[in-house]
Amino acid sequence: MLVPIQSSGTKPPMFLVHGNTGFMPVGTAFARVLGPDQPVYVLNARGFDGTPPHETVADMVDEYLGEVLSVTSTGPLIVVGMCAGSLVALDLATELAAKGCEMGPLILMDPPRVPYGKEAVEVTDEIARQLYEYTRGVITNQSKIWFMEQPFDVNDPEQLHNAIVTGMAAITATSKFTPRPFLGTVELILSAEMAPPFFGRDRPWHKILLNPPVIHAMPFGHAEMLQKHRFDVARLVRMALQWNARRGTAPRPLGQRVGQEQPPARMQQPFSQMAGE
Known about the structure:
Distance between the termini: 38 Å
Strand content: 5-15%
Number of strands: 7
Number of helices: 8
Structural class: alpha/beta
Strand order of the largest sheet: 1-3-2-4-5-6-7
């Protein structure tokens, strides 16, 4: 579900992909920090209105692809992913490039520590409770519900039920998905608690992000990134785009190895099977 936050501007449009809650908690104030000339759109999961949610990342990307192409069919454009939504953003960027779109840098904010697909996560009562509390807390603490096309009533049991079902479907879909190797330019924005794997010896993402990403580490926790510190994150996104433009990075083929005419097929199996380990 495409939600325009700031549709005017001459810069390449930015599309922000939701995480495991199914919605991307950014709005008009976030967009203003990015600048008045920066178009910003949010891609929220299907299901908040009671329609069946997506069951797989491939289903999500197929629908989001049409939404993005309805705004720009050639690019240039920027895709941003948050948390597990980084996996969706990776696949979306790959598909857009395969359609001939000119891509700016892919921005991933606190992607999962390990990008390899596993068995689908069983959504327990505890996970559902945490999702409920987070969703209700975010909605209650915001002065305006900017991530829904229609007003969201935090006291409406049906709307809250839809939100939880949508979030649980997103958790299940992303937990069993393995992204394809990616050759494009990537900017990583990491919280203090999520940064260590990207600096450690194993660096599990290096088999997915084939070009070394530019890493921006921030001194606060994951849960605070798009709540208490969302404007700090917006400033860093703006600066990252400015730095990228000054570096003059030429567009690279995304998700495509040398000699391949098409990006590799999507993979749903665990990475250990993909790598033959």
